[in-house]
Write a structure and sequence with these properties.
By secondary structure, the chain is of the alpha+beta class. It has helices at 13-23, 44-48, 66-72, and strands spanning 3-8, 30-34, 37-40, 56-61. A hairpin with a 2-residue loop joins strand 2 and strand 3 (37-40).
């Protein structure tokens, strides 16, 4: 199974809400991590629990649809 990884930055509560909403449109599993903590990317509480000062690592288990990539573009950073 293909795993695709991006770095993403969320700054506000609204960013987190929008980001998780977009991740929930993905049919596969999504892991979001910060330092040694890994949470389900589709869980808003899980993402809120991470250290948001640094970019998050987002791992998609499967192919990312191009529509989802476009939606996530404002959050993607080169880290």
């Amino acid at each position: 199974m293909k795993i695709t990884e991006i770095k993403a930055k969320v700054n506000t509560m609204e960013d987190i809400k929008t980001f998780v909403t977009y991740l929930n449109q993905f049919s596969g599993d999504v892991d979001v991590s910060s330092a040694q903590y890994v949470v389900d990317g589709k869980s808003i509480l899980g993402v809120f629990s991470l250290d948001l000062e640094k970019p998050l690592t987002v791992k998609f288990h499967g192919e990312i649809p191009s529509e989802l990539e476009e939606k996530l573009a404002p959050f993607i950073v080169n880290a």
